[in-house]
Design a protein that fits this description.
- It is built from three helices and two strands.
- It is an alpha+beta fold.
- Strands 1-2 form a two-stranded antiparallel sheet.
- The longest helix is centred in the last third of the chain and has 19 residues.
- The protein is elongated and about 50 Å long.
Length: about 70
């Protein structure tokens, strides 16, 4: 548990330091993200972005367990 918390802290620190560059990535604006805008109604579901982030996190966790 201690190792997981340390790794999570390091990852959050790295994301925080890299935020200026990460904000320029097209996450949230990928072709598979669903956006429905109508008068008085707005719906956004980041399907492609969520799948991409999940795949990257799964790959990192798989690599750390090896």
């Amino acid at each position: 548990m201690q190792r997981a918390l340390i790794v999570a802290g390091i990852v959050l620190l790295a994301i925080g330091l890299a935020w200026p560059w990460l904000s320029k990535l097209p996450l949230g604006r990928l072709p598979g993200d669903l956006r429905i805008e109508r008068e008085g109604f707005s719906f956004y579901f980041p399907l492609a972005s969520g799948l991409l982030i999940s795949a990257v996190i799964s790959l990192i966790l798989w690599w750390l367990r090896k």
